[in-house]
């Protein structure tokens, strides 16, 4: 006999499917939300960890840079000396015109065998005497063995050996905005080896100086906003590596934050000769020339694009007996282009007395070649 089996209703199947779909969907949403929360939490935690690590690295880098410059300055300060024209500088800085009356200034040791670089207006002319105070307080008699009033630089010799000496940098490669530090004795003995910081504010600067009714120009200077006071004269202007890039020389008193230094590269050949040979026999061309940016101050009708303008020919120099004339434009020396008096001077410093140099000049827009045998500067 056929037995009838009751089939499940379509409604019941639908309900079952519907419940399964709801359960699966709920599970999917739960799992998805769980993983999203885990990922968000992990991402946030990773970001927080990354930020913490980044901040820690920056802080460590800043601390290391501060420690490095502090150590650099400590080492450099040991090579900075005090210079005076009289031995007893007194015990107080509050003397009237102490820096000028006592002849107080600054210098730097540039060789282990006792050569010291400073300003000419601090040390005086060649063969003059002064007193040098080292970092340890010892005072020595100093003899000026070389001086140039045009550069405002001088070299002093003291009878001491095995000295810590300063590291010379490269002033040709400095950039505006670089960090710079000036070291010197700004007021007197109580404030010896004061450090001020700033940046390189300008390069190849020219300033006009009026003194005792005379007008002169200092060219190719480094401008800095590191504070330079009168007693800082002759002290080093250094970079963040502790390398000397300039010699603090003058400060415009009418304006705040404007100081100048003579580029160190100008004097390097002289320092090297004294350090190695114990002397420097200075070859002499016997002229004074201006950079082209000075000419508008002298004569606005003179125009030239390259070279230096011959403003003066010394009566005791080798150029006097040559065909070189005032007003000539020197564009080359030994086929090397010249655009600054400092470049011409530096090249002459590398030559010997008796060497012959070839000058290429412009005169009335015509190019002329003149050969001159270098003399000896007294």
Describe it for me?
The termini are far apart. A 6-stranded antiparallel barrel has the order 1-2-3-6-5-4. Helix content is 26%, strand content 33%. The longest helix has 68 residues, at 10-77. The chain folds into 4 domains: 15-74; 80-157, Beta Barrel (Thrombin, subunit H), CATH 2.40.10; 169-265, Beta Barrel (Thrombin, subunit H); 281-376, Roll (Pdz3 Domain), CATH 2.30.42.10. It has helices at residues 10-77, 98-101, 120-123, 268-277, 295-298, 341-349, and strands at 80-84, 105-109, 115-118, 129-133, 139-148, 153-157, 167-168, 179-184, 194-211, 214-224, 236-238, 243-251, 259-263, 283-284, 287-291, 308-313, 329-333, 336-337, 356-363, 366-373, 375-376. With 378 residues, the chain is an alpha+beta fold. The protein is built from 6 helices and 21 strands. Strand 9 and strand 10 form a beta hairpin.
Question: In terms of topology, how is this protein built?
Answer:
Blueprint: H1 10-77, E1 80-84, H2 98-101, E2 105-109, E3 115-118, H3 120-123, E4 129-133, E5 139-148, E6 153-157, E7 167-168, E8 179-184, E9 194-211, E10 214-224, E11 236-238, E12 243-251, E13 259-263, H4 268-277, E14 283-284, E15 287-291, H5 295-298, E16 308-313, E17 329-333, E18 336-337, H6 341-349, E19 356-363, E20 366-373, E21 375-376
Parallel strand pairs: 7-12
Antiparallel strand pairs: 1-2, 1-4, 2-3, 3-6, 4-5, 5-6, 8-9, 8-11, 9-10, 10-13, 11-12, 12-13, 14-21, 15-16, 16-17, 17-18, 17-19, 19-20
């Amino acid at each position: 006999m056929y037995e009838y089996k009751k089939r499940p209703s379509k409604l019941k199947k639908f309900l079952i499917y519907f419940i399964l779909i709801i359960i699966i969907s709920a599970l999917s949403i739960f799992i998805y939300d769980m993983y999203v929360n885990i990922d968000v939490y992990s991402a946030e935690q990773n970001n927080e960890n990354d930020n913490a690590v980044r901040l820690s690295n920056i802080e460590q880098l800043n601390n290391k840079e501060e420690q490095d410059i502090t150590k650099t300055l400590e080492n450099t300060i040991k090579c900075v000396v005090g210079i005076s024209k009289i031995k007893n500088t007194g015990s107080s800085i509050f003397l009237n015109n102490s820096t000028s009356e006592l002849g107080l200034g600054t210098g730097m040791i540039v060789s282990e065998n006792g050569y010291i670089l400073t300003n000419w207006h601090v040390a005086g002319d060649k063969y003059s005497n002064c007193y040098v105070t080292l970092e340890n307080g010892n005072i020595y008699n100093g003899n000026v063995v070389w001086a140039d009033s045009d550069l405002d630089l001088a070299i002093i010799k003291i009878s001491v050996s095995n000295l810590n000496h300063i590291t010379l940098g490269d002033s040709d490669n400095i950039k505006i905005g670089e960090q710079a530090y000036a070291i010197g004795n700004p007021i007197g003995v109580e404030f010896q080896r004061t450090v001020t910081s700033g940046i390189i504010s300008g390069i190849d600067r020219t300033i006009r100086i009026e003194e005792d009714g005379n007008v002169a120009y200092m060219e190719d200077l480094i401008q800095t906003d590191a504070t330079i006071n009168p007693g800082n004269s002759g002290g080093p202007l250094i970079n963040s590596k502790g390398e000397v890039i300039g010699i603090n020389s003058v400060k415009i008193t009418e304006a705040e934050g404007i100081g100048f230094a003579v580029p160190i590269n100008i004097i390097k050949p002289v320092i090297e000769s004294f350090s190695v040979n114990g002397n420097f026999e200075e070859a002499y061309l016997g002229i004074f020339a201006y950079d082209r940016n000075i000419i508008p101050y002298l004569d606005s009708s003179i125009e030239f694009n390259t070279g230096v303008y011959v403003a003066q020919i010394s009566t005791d120099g080798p150029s006097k007996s040559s065909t070189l004339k005032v007003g000539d434009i020197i564009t080359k020396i030994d086929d090397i282009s010249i655009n600054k008096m400092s470049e011409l001077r530096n090249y002459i410093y590398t030559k010997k007395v008796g060497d012959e140099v070839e000058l290429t000049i412009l005169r009335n827009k015509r190019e002329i070649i003149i050969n001159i045998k270098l003399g000896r500067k007294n």
